[in-house]
Amino acid sequence: MAEAQFKAETSTRGEWVRQANRFTERITADGSSGWPAQPDRYRLVVSLACPWAHRSVIVRRLLGLEDALSMGIVDPIRDRRGWRFTLDPQGKDPVTKISFLSQAYLRADLEFRGRCTVPAILDVAEGRVVTNDYPQLTLDLSTEWAKYHRNGAPQLYPEHLRTEIDEINAVVYADVNNGVYRCGFATSQEAYEEAFERLFARLDWLSEHLADRRYLVGDTITEADVRLFTTLVRFDAVYHGHFKCNRQKLAEMPILWAYARDLFQTPGFGDTVDFDHIKRHYYATHDQINPTKIVPVGPDLSGWRTPHGREALGGKPFGTGTPPG
Does the pTM of the predicted model rise above 0.70? Predict the structure, then answer.
């Protein structure tokens, strides 16, 4: 992120203020939005380093949408020009033929001057962004794209649990998902300590919540678990040190550590994690926090495959469904 953009998202108190999502059009089953859910029409663009994008990678895989919605992966190192397709031949996304995600943003709005964020769903024919509304995007994959789900796909956003899922998601976003960023990007001691206290108070609350239940809501994985997991899986690798979230490591919080390992070992979760992309992105992109761009060798990742014992709490990850192939 460029220095000017970093300052633009910091309040006068030194608090991190996240940029609002600019493109919030929805892709709908009936096409009433003007963007009907159709196979091969759209392309999901993600960074494997980004927790917000990682949500969409997990949900797409759990629901079996790979054949309906193609996916492009950007370089984990974002320079001042934004996200780049340098992992692809000739540095171009093979489907949309663009070199920078910013090209798709500008095709949607020539006046756009904010950060070009992931995840983003692009219209392939027009090469423009349809949505970068990451909270709604994954919910729509569960609901509006249901026609294209695989047989045995889990119900990640079941109607009878939506109110509870929404309530959990709201506090987890405010204090944990975005809370780690509010710690890491704070530019005043006061703002940092306030975010730090809220983060660990919420993690303590989540530990109590998960002490006698396997999943956040109900007895199967839901959207709520996906959203918490993408922050927890990055906690020790980047947030603990790089973002100064250092009261404890995740591995020192027994309940959350076991919960995270349980999800990591569930098909669709751990097999979508790329620790190399995660570490290189955070440590080599945030110049204002880590000007040397040295990427740590640790932590030891072998613990993610150790037994977690959470099966004893009951529940089945996919309910009556099946894991992704």
Answer: yes
